[in-house]
Amino acid sequence: MRRWRELGLICSVLLIFAAAAGITAFQSPGREPQRKKAQYPIVDYNAPEPSDPKERAKRRKKGEKYKGEFGPIDPSRQNVFEDEVIHFDYGTPALPVSRSAAVIVGTVTKAQAHLTADKSYAYSEFDVLVDEVVKDDAQSPISAGQTIPVERPGGRVLVAPGNIHEFRTTLNPLEVGCRYALFLTRRGDDYNVFTAYKLEAGKVFPVDDYFKPLEGTSEEDFMRDLRQAASPDKKTGRSAINTSIPASVYCYTVGYNIIRTKKIIPDPATMSPESAGEAEPSQATASD
Do strands 42-44 and 155-160 pair parallel, antiparallel, or not at all (unpaired)? Predict the structure, then answer.
């Protein structure tokens, strides 16, 4: 009996060591923890428009760029998600300097969602404190130390307590307090984020999944290549990072497409126990 107890004790110790070794390996420095995506900012459905006529006209003009595919929000619907799948042009370079009106490095200081005047879509606006101008906008020069607003489609709308209507896209939002390299395009007088890279702890993390192969790249190498790509007198030399995305990564990204899908999640409080387990979210699709 004593021998069996000793054998059991030895097995228990070995199991503890094996489990500890497994945890250590899982948390080793070589393994990056799965990074959570940023959440869209939120706007109140019942918030009034700006009282100042100029600000109201400005906000309405901005909102005209975004069209809700399914019409105005229906406040009677509970927890609606409208998804947009936005594809980059096939062969879009990892450093799309030539496709950008400006390229900057800066920190997001504020995030705010805005609802269009017809309440059919929400978009997000981010204030960015500029640290460095890598490529300046020929139409409207940008300076270091300046704060500029930039936009991305998508946002959340608080229709009522517990009822959020979310407009989601494959172009992910930015996070307040984080530093980014931002590739900006123009839509009228407004800047849109074509794509962005988060700069954190000496490494680079693409905001958009299309550029996922660059995740974990050294910030030093990335910034050197970015400045070189934006320089008018580029020096020839081998890039430290892979600045082209191979066709095998996202081979479906041919052309620029938007596919919108609306999903309505039934409110359990309005359903009978029998139907609650059988209900499927209703959906509709549209494509441009």
Answer: parallel
Question: Does residue 212 register a pLDDT over 90?
Answer: no
Give pLDDT, residue 38: 83
Q: Which two tokens stand for residue 188?
A: 């009228």
pTM for the structure as a whole: 0.73
Distance CA 101, CA 186 (A): 6
